[in-house]
Design brief:
alpha+beta, 3-stranded mixed sheet, 5 helices
C-alpha cells in the first residue's frame, strides 16, 4: 500500500474544507479534515473521513475523535472506492446523526450525494455538471460543483 494521496485528492478535500469552514463560521458546527477520526460505536469501528462536520457540543469536548457527524465526505481513490461505497458506508449509516454522505470522484467531476430521509432511507443524487449547485442537507451549505474542483489537474 502506498501512503499519501494525489494532487486532485488533496485539492478537492482542501477546497471542501475551506468552503465548509467559511460557511460554518460563528455556528456551533466544526469542520474536520482527514487526521480526525470518527467513532461508529454500533459498528465498533473508527474511520478517518476526508472531511466531516459535527455540530454536537459533545464532539467539541472530545479532542481525539468525533461521534456525531452530520456530514461526511470521502474523496475517492481507485484503491479505496469499493470500501468507501460498501463496508464504510454501511458503518456510517449506523450513525443516527449523519444526514449526508458524499463520495467525491477525483478522476471526473462527480459527487454522489447520499441523503438520509425522515424514513431513514438514503436517497442518491449525483452531481456532474460544473455549474450545478451542490447542497449539503443538515447544514444547509450550497456551492457550485466546479468550486470543489478548482485547481485540480486534468486527467
Amino acid at each position: 500500500m502506498i501512503a499519501g494521496a494525489t494532487d486532485n485528492h488533496v485539492t478537492i478535500a482542501g477546497n471542501l474544507f475551506v468552503l465548509l469552514k467559511q460557511h460554518l463560521k460563528n455556528t456551533p458546527c466544526r469542520t474536520n479534515i482527514s487526521d480526525m477520526k470518527v467513532r461508529v460505536e454500533k459498528a465498533d469501528a473508527y474511520f478517518y473521513p476526508d472531511v466531516m462536520v459535527t455540530c454536537n457540543p459533545k464532539d467539541q469536548a472530545n479532542t481525539l475523535y468525533k461521534q456525531h457527524p452530520v456530514f461526511i465526505a470521502e474523496v475517492l481513490s481507485p484503491s479505496t472506492e469499493a470500501f468507501d461505497r460498501g463496508n464504510k458506508f454501511n458503518a456510517y449509516r449506523q450513525l443516527d446523526c449523519l444526514k449526508t454522505y458524499w463520495l467525491i470522484d477525483t478522476q471526473a467531476m462527480r459527487i454522489d450525494s447520499f441523503t438520509r430521509t425522515q424514513n431513514d432511507d438514503w436517497l442518491l443524487h449525483s452531481y456532474t455538471k460544473a455549474d450545478e449547485i451542490v447542497e449539503i442537507k443538515g447544514i444547509e451549505v450550497q456551492c457550485l460543483l466546479k468550486e470543489l474542483y478548482e485547481g485540480t489537474l486534468p486527467n
